[in-house]
Specification:
Layout (H helix, E strand, L loop, with lengths): L11 H9 L4 H8 L3 H10 L21 E3 L5 E4 L5 E3 H10 L8 E4 L12 E4 L2 H11 L18 E3 L2 E2 H9 L7
Antiparallel strand pairs: 1-2, 2-3, 4-5, 6-7
Helix pairs in contact: 2-3
The structure holds zinc ion (2 copies).
């Protein structure tokens, strides 16, 4: 109470930001004149998991646990300082080794906006390019996959059915084996 420290009490956002910038908990402890367990406790309060020493900063898969899903179904991450960023953008930027440039967009190949592994992400140079990707990947205009077998490997025939399933449904009435 009223105790003056040589270094001010760490602002928790600032502490988190430094941690995510790659500062070790020991370095933070020394910098703020507090113990390492105190640093770790503060990081834990904000939901940041302790970083694996071998994997630096934001490259670590567990560096943040503060995930939210926004109203459009995208994953946003808490990056400290009250800032949230889109997970898919962050992952793409890491993959590219640069920031995204204005008209660029990211496409989720399997259509799942929350599946942000790099294999599921594709960089589009602008909105038109992104639209094209949707047309290219959508199995048919109105269906993502065959409504019966759930596959996309076989060509769409009609009514959301692949050739095989369409034939099956069409002729099953005539066949004893169904
Ligand atoms: Zn897309
Ligand atoms: Zn089918």
């Amino acid at each position: 109470m009223g105790r003056k420290l040589s270094v001010p009490e760490p602002n928790i956002d600032e502490l988190c930001q430094r941690y995510m910038d790659g500062w070790s908990s020991l370095k933070l402890a020394k910098y703020y004149g507090i113990s390492k367990p105190t640093v770790l406790r503060r990081l834990r309060i904000t939901g940041i998991k302790r970083r694996d020493i071998r994997v630096r900063g934001s490259m670590h898969p567990n560096w943040i646990t503060g995930k939210i899903i926004n109203k459009d179904g995208y994953v946003k991450l808490n990056v400290g300082g009250g800032k949230r960023v889109f997970e898919h953008k962050l992952i793409m930027e890491k993959h590219l080794g640069r920031k995204l440039i204005k008209p660029e967009e990211i496409h989720h190949i399997n259509g799942d906006k929350q599946d942000n592994v790099i294999e599921n992400l594709e960089l589009c140079k602008d909105r038109a390019d992104h639209k094209r990707k949707h047309q290219q990947y959508n199995w048919s205009t109105n269906y993502l996959c065959c409504q019966r077998c759930k596959k996309t490997e076989i060509k769409h025939e009609a009514h959301g059915l692949c050739i095989n399933c369409y034939q099956w449904i069409r002729y099953k009435g005539d066949r004893a084996d169904g």
